[in-house]
Amino acid sequence: MAHRIDAIRPMRDLLIRLPKLPVNLQQEIDFPAADPAMLVAIAEDAEMLMGATQMGLGAIGQLLANSAVMIEDGTVSANSIEALGLLMSEMADMAHHCMGLAVHCRQETAHSPQKSQRTSSRSAIERGLV
Fold first, then answer.
1. Angle between helices 36-65 and 78-110 (to 10 degrees)
2. DSSP β-bridge partners for residue 25
3. What is the gyration radius of the CA atoms in the chain, in angstroms?
4. Alpha carbon distance 76, 116 (integer Å)
5. pLDDT of residue 104
6. What is the pLDDT of residues 32-41, one digit of tens each?
7. What's the pTM?
8. Positive/negative CA dihedral, 32, 35, 36, 39
9. Torsions phi, psi of 108, nearest 5?
10. With CB atoms 3.0 to 4.6 Å apart as the test, which of 37, 74, 94, 107 could cross-link to 119 if both were Cys?
11. What pLDDT, in 10s, does the model give residues 111-128?
């Protein structure tokens, strides 16, 4: 997983990198044809985003559990609780798919020792890969 300094904005970086991946005729990601450095960067972004999402969902859950009285007496509206529930559901689904994406990227770069070595950001940028 990347250090905090390396990927401060993992969702933004992931959304920027994903469209750069090649696709096959079925319009699915063609992991074998993708640049290994890009796959490693995407895996790191996805893993960091998944971790942040899980921590955030846990924090929201704690807040809701400790707000039961305010929810019960109507201080916090049912609409707010519904919106939080929908948000939490979407975030959990995103974390699930980030895990799958990270696994596919890691598997592809793990097959070859050459592929698993990360290219420096500078040289990848110079070659127009990232």
1. 150
2. none
3. 19
4. 50
5. 96
6. 999 999 999 9
7. 0.75
8. negative
9. -65, -40
10. 37
11. 755 544 444 443 443 344
Q: Is the pLDDT of residue 49 over 80?
A: yes
Burial bucket for residue 106 (CB in 10 Å: 0-12, 13-18, 19+)? middle
Q: Tell me the DSSP string of 23-76.
A: B-TTSSB-GGGS-HHHHHHHHHHHHHHHHHHHHHHHHHHHHHHTTHHHHHTTSS
CB atoms within 10 A of CB 101: 23
The amino acid at residue 111 is H
Residue with tokens 């529930």: 85
Q: Is 1 helix (H, G, I), strand (E, B) or coil?
A: coil
Residue 62 identity: Q
Q: How far apart are CA 100 and CA 124, in angstroms?
A: 25
Q: How far is CA 42 from CA 16, 21, 73, in A?
A: 10, 10, 45
Q: Which two tokens stand for residue 113?
A: 């020792």
Copy the structure tokens of residue 80: 């707010």
